[in-house]
Each structure stands twice: as C-alpha cells, then as structure tokens.
Amino acid sequence: MIYVQRLDLLIDVYFDCNYSMSTEQLYLKGNEEHWICICGNDTMDLGFQTCDKKGNFIEPTTHSLWQGHYACQNCGRIIEDSDTRKIVEQNPFALRYDDYLKSLKK
Fold first, then answer.
1. Which residue of 18, 23, 32, 46 is most buried, as measured by CB atoms within 10 A?
2. What letters, b where the CB count within 10 A reaches 16 and e where it falls short, cover 65-95?
3. For the chain, how many structural domains are there in total?
4. pLDDT tens column, 50-75
C-alpha cells in the first residue's frame, strides 16, 4: 500500500501498487459542504453533480434511480456517497448536467 498526502489540495490518496481504477481507493477531502477532487476541482469551481453508477447525470428525485453517487464536473471521477466521499470509478465522457439541459431544449 502506498500513501500520498498533498496538503496543497487537502487530499489523502491511498492505492494498491497494482494500480487500476477498479482497485483504486481515493477519498475526497474537505467537509460536508466543501469537497476537493484529486484533479483540483472543488465545490466552488465546477463542482459535483448527482449521477448514476456510470457517472451520467441523474435528477435526485423520489422516483429516480439515484443511489447517492456524485461525479466531478471536471474529470468525471465518481464518488460513492457524500458520507465516505470514496472515489469508485471514473468516466470523463459521461452525460453531464449541461448536456442534460441541452437535451431538454431539443
């Protein structure tokens, strides 16, 4: 196990030596109201969006299939939930909120 800490971004990074996104364990640092992604994006910059397990934007309504996932609007990293802030996957080509709004106008 390798441990890296970047104080400038307030990020703790933990990953196995056999690096792949499926085994990578990254945790966003910050607090409940201010998240900072490993790419440098934070809540006050591009921010994070609610998404499905694949990183595609989804409305967090009562009747939606939203399971508590969030995606970084900059790099597409998918965060498991707001409590652990564990990064579980990455999809830089996922449907983002702006794409969703454009699809409504068609």
1. 46
2. ebeebbbbbbbbbbbbeeeebebbbbbeebb
3. 1
4. 999 999 999 888 788 889 999 999 99
